[in-house]
Amino acid sequence: MMRAALPAGLALALLIGAGAQAQVADLRSTTALRVCADPAAAPMSAQDGSGFENKLARLIADRLGLPLEYSWFPQGPGFVRRTLRAGLCDVVIGYAQGDELVQNTNHYYTSVYGIVARRDGPLAAVDRLTDPALHGRNLGVVAGTPPATHMARAGLARDMRGGKLNVDRRTENPVADMVGAVRDGMLDAAVLWGPLAGPLVRDDPALRFTPLLREEGAPRLFYRITMGVRPGEDDWKRQLNSLIRRNQPEIDRILREAGVPLVDDYGKALKP
Questions:
Q1: CATH, residue 193
Q2: What is the pTM of this model?
């Protein structure tokens, strides 16, 4: 019954105009940190609590002095609408800066796409998608992601072996599959998002992840990652911004231990 009542309540909030923000703000729980998350998006989030976003959520909950609760839903179409916007939870721990579906906090890390290759292979030293060494190789990339555009522009369209972008991670894991294919020699390299690939490569002595810090032109290959809250919840956003600022060293430590490649705000160099 609660799920059926929420859309009507939100519709009413929209109708009353000036009172809408107060209505939205009332949705936030004051008795728990309620996190919207995908149950099968490792290494980011996982229902067993092993993801690095789970550890970041635990850090925030501890600093707030609140218990941690989750609303689980697969990321993809409808994720924000069915979780955050429905009032079932109050924050998405990892959200790319600039998306209009949520209100972004200040970013708490910046990461980048990169190349996964075998350490003992011919592509181990490649750090640009325009490197001639990539031509004629089997190259994995998730279809529709920014590096696919750069690769096509560099004349690598025939070499690209695409994985699906929107999948239910409970049943499919294209990034992990491509990392495994590089390890096994089925792919020569794969161009993947750092926070997904970095943790998978971190403890694998056969593989390395090389961030793409020298690419030019659009689309950009680095992204600033924020926490996402509902539009209108400005006090909550400011509270999270303060927590991010005061706990940035601990946030960085969690991300580095997970194997997430951290870069400066402009994607030009590794973060010290």
A1: 3.40.190.10
A2: 0.88
